[in-house]
UniProtKB/TrEMBL annotation:
It comes from Pontibacter diazotrophicus. Residues 150-379 form the Sigma-54 factor interaction domain. The keyword Oxidoreductase does not apply. GO terms for molecular function: ATP binding; sequence-specific DNA binding. This is Sigma-54-dependent Fis family transcriptional regulator. The keyword Repeat does not apply. Residues 8-127 form the Response regulatory domain.
Length: 457
């Protein structure tokens, strides 16, 4: 299988806007993108060309929007190439149908409107899965093949990788702790891929994005007529993950009411969809993650201690980047190679002063912040040697920066206060304009809204 640079991707959807958006997003990530509006052309297209990943809409022509058209074409594709990596696209969030597609051979599914980062992560994950494994290759602490791999040579990250190898083959529930941007979802995926459930679904849920009103229907499912828009039965994420791994990200943000309902499901290993009285048994391996000080929340009775016992049979704490001695340069060079290729530039070098500047920064946004900083530098740099001035940090990053040495977890509270004050000042400066404020702080609008909610602004 070729690298992402040479990969061939096919997108099949009857919406011209979707085809255009995906082509623009993917063309800098892979070697060649082909779009097709009419699925009837698929057999001839697949006879002529071979694709590494195929994005396939679940609904064509039919006004019923049942997704059966997508399943039909999925079967046709797999008849042509049983190893095809097909990622289904649905606008309806029909998890039950998506699970059926996974059982029939789909590699994954995404829901419209998608998040670009998640879609690209799914793409790279499936490109990596197509790569043949070298004979005798074993697990190493450094993986350099994709931007979504766990990368590092420090003792801190080696300890994490050792724990993954030990824990993954078990059925233990895992709680992943760590600051934002440390790679908690990568660890969750690694646990799944090294487990006996690797051939079953990996379902990820952003708990921080779920309101109390959506919690039950999203996680446990719903029956037709259970609420105004419930026009058909819908499986929840627990059922979607049946036999596989369920990853609950940002679990520390859920309300006491959500905590109680989640605890009941984990104790009984069964879910009851909204509008039903019949429990459905589920078999899942639970992996949870949070950047919140969950034990402090429990001490303040803001998080149930009995729920903590359920979700953390084993615990993995991800080190912040400032504690991963030696990894900053390794990661910076790794991301520089990726973004130079993506932006059609030669792979750059780093001036010694630049490496010193990167090592002295405290990286409050961790690996994600470093990744974005390198991407900005690659785009804006004039020469082929990255200079200190090519790296600038947003007001948010500077405001939340901790000292590069002497870091202690108990110093997190003033940093949070500084973040709140920075957001308020920037909002006032921009007269409440969310878009301008987000841009100045180096955040997306969604990320800014989360922080506004977090700080009760």
């Amino acid at each position: 299988m070729a690298s992402a640079k040479n990969a061939r991707v096919l997108v099949v959807d009857d919406e011209a806007d979707v085809l255009f958006a995906l082509k623009m997003l993917l063309k800098t990530e892979v070697g060649h993108v082909v779009t097709e509006k009419n699925p009837d052309n698929l057999p001839a297209l697949l006879d002529r060309e071979k694709f590494d990943v195929i994005f396939l809409d679940m609904n064509f022509k039919s006004a019923l929007n049942t997704g059966n058209e997508g399943l039909f074409w999925l079967r046709q594709i797999l008849q042509k190439d049983k190893d095809a990596k097909v990622i289904l696209i649905t606008a309806y969030g029909d998890v039950e149908l998506a699970v059926r597609s996974l059982k029939e051979g789909a590699a994954d599914f995404i829901v419209k409107p998608w998040h670009n980062d998640k879609l690209l992560e799914t793409l790279h994950h499936n490109l990596q899965a197509r790569q043949p494994k070298k004979a005798g290759a074993g697990n190493t602490s450094t993986h350099k093949n994709t931007s979504t791999s766990i990368l590092g040579e420090s003792d801190a990250i080696k300890e994490v990788l050792y724990k993954i190898d030990k824990i993954a083959p078990t059925e233990a529930n895992v709680l992943i702790l760590g600051e934002n941007g440390t790679g908690k979802e990568l660890v969750a995926r690694a646990l799944h891929e090294k487990s006996f459930r690797a051939t079953k679904p990996f379902i990820s849920v952003d708990m921080g994005a779920l309101t109390d009103s959506l919690f039950e229907s999203e996680l446990f499912g719903s029956k037709r007529g259970a609420f105004t828009d419930a026009k058909e039965d819908r499986a929840g994420r627990f059922e979607a993950a049946n036999g596989g791994t369920l990853f609950l990200d940002e679990i520390g943000n859920i309300s006491p009411a959500m905590q109680a309902k989640l605890l009941t499901v984990l104790q009984n290993r069964q879910v009851t969809p909204l509008g039903s009285n019949t429990p459905v048994p589920v078999d899942i391996r639970l992996v949870s993650a949070t950047n919140e000080p969950i034990y402090e929340l429990a001490a303040r009775n803001q998080f149930r201690k009995d729920l903590i016992y359920r979700i953390n049979t084993v615990e993995i704490t991800l080190p912040p980047l400032r504690q991963r001695e030696g990894d900053i340069e390794l990661l910076a060079r790794h991301f520089a190679a990726i973004y130079a290729q993506k932006n059609h530039k030669p792979e750059p070098d780093f001036a010694p002063a630049t490496l010193q500047k990167l090592k002295q920064h405290s990286w409050p946004g961790n690996v994600r912040e470093l990744q974005h900083a390198v991407e900005r530098a690659i785009i804006l740099a004039e020469g082929n040697v990255l200079q200190p001035q090519d790296f600038s940090f947003s007001p948010m990053e500077m405001a939340t920066a901790a000292p590069a040495t002497g870091f202690a977890p108990d110093k997190a509270v003033p940093l949070i206060e500084m973040e709140r004050e920075t957001i308020i000042r920037t909002l006032e400066k921009n007269k409440g304009n969310i878009s301008r404020t987000a841009k100045e702080l180096g955040l997306t609008r969604t990320a800014l809204y989360r922080r506004l909610n977090k700080h009760d602004i």
